Known about the structure:
The chain contains four helices and no strands. With about 90 residues, the protein is mostly helical.
Amino acid sequence: MRRSHVSILYNPTYVKAYMRRCTANERIENTEDALKEAQKALELEPANAVARKSVSRLQKIEAERLEKLKEETMGKLKDLGNSLLSNF
């Protein structure tokens, strides 16, 4: 178990551990979890400028990721619809 996980288990209000997990998740391109960690840190410490910047930046990245995923899904659905209609 990672130190940040253990730190949070012992002290659920330890902002630094949430920010470390945020950074680790972002490095492995897990922006959804990184955003959750940054939001938790900001919730615990609203004056934390680093957490605020991270939330703002990650929200933009996550919105772009979701938009791209939506476009890919719509493209696949269109292709499926076209392939089904071509049979008739």
